[in-house]
Amino acid sequence: MIxxxxxxxxPELVQQNSAKKGYEVDIDQLLGFDSKRRELLxxxxxxxxxxNQIADSMKGSRPSEEQIQKGKDLKEQLAGLExxxxxxxQSCSEMLAGVPNMMMAxxxxxxxxxxxxISRYGETNQGAxxxxxLAVKKDWVDFERGAKVSGTKFYYLKGDLALxxxxxTQYALQFVTQKDFIFMTVPxxxxxRTATGTGFAPRTSDQGDEYYIEGEDLSLIATAEIPLxxxxxxxxxxxxxxxxxxxxxxxxxxxxxGTYGKHARGLFRVHQFNKLEMYAYTLPENSVQMHENIRSLxxxxxxxxxxxxxxxxxxxxDLGAPAAKKYDIEYWSPVDKSxxxxxxxxxxxxxxxxxxxxxxxRKDGQVQPLHTLNGTVVSLARSLVAIIENYQTPEGDVMxxxxxxxxxxxKEKI
Length: 414
Hints:
The strands form four sheets. The chain has an eight-stranded mixed beta sheet. A three-stranded mixed beta sheet has the order 7-13-14, with no helix packed on it. It has helices spanning about 5-10, 10-20, 25-55, 65-95, 130-135, 145-150, 160-175, 190-200, 225-230, 285-305, 350-355, 380-390, and strands spanning about 115-120, 140, 155, 180-185, 190, 220, 235-240, 245-255, 270-280, 310-315, 325-335, 340-345, 360, 365-370, 370-380. Helix 3 runs antiparallel to helix 4 and helix 7 packs across helix 12. It is α+β, with helices and mostly antiparallel strands and about 425 residues long. It is elongated. About 35% of the residues are buried.
């Protein structure tokens, strides 16, 4: 969440920022609740002080009728006012949670189509067979039996394609751990505080992306970013220990709500896939540089796989609530003759840290929220699509990228 004091000081700026990101918020109403909350809190605290003074005055002696009556009156007043305060605090918290993070100055304005390309890598080609057609022909993927067992957009990977997914995972994990990221396994279910604290508030009621466990305060994770954010919830980290860098492999479960009209064929957009995620906790003044470092690592990995791509600075309307800035890496699809999203990395500044009370103790003793960042190393389903489309032979085989051969038992092609 955003610092409420920042909103008090910059209401118009926050209102404009929210609108540019596509979020409907009413900052005037939020500040009205905040003002009423502070007013009531002052009254309640004054009554509590009076009640405590009466209680202290009655210690060691028989209370007078006047003291007893005054105590009863204060109790009744407090009960009513505390109920009002609780209701207003809840309304204030709910509205505050719906305010998206402030964007950085160099974020392009507009929707998805207004995102700005900043660089390209590799030679583009055309004419490959669609990944799904080839995978079905090779008996590498089975969506029909996935649908029978789980529903539409679930699937089985088989044989060489399943082995290729494992090879990408092992290579990417080796790659990122050599860059000082600590490998972790994470819970695949998180409580509501962790899920909402990570900050993926949907723009509308039909865009919620999580699968909830009925009757329990748990939901399946949409990304390892969620449990990695919650890992240091309610902790104060010493400045000397930052930055902290983590990497985690997990399945990701997504309803893909609100994605109507987006590219969704085959493995590109599914309800369950595996992903290796990077995550970093940094000092506020270092998060911009860390963001660039994470982007650079993602580029290095895809260059090592020799997949043509471009880097895009994501526009405001496609940024999401937590991110102050986000880069996407989009691979070249010779099938679609266009670029498709492959990975992303975001600087969430102090937005998630405030939600989950994650702070840094500076050398001078000051305690303040730190900054959090995330980046996809590999999203396995889309990684398979990118390799199948860019490494096909005229005979219908798929060559193995050089760096993956040691993880494929030396196979040259599948």
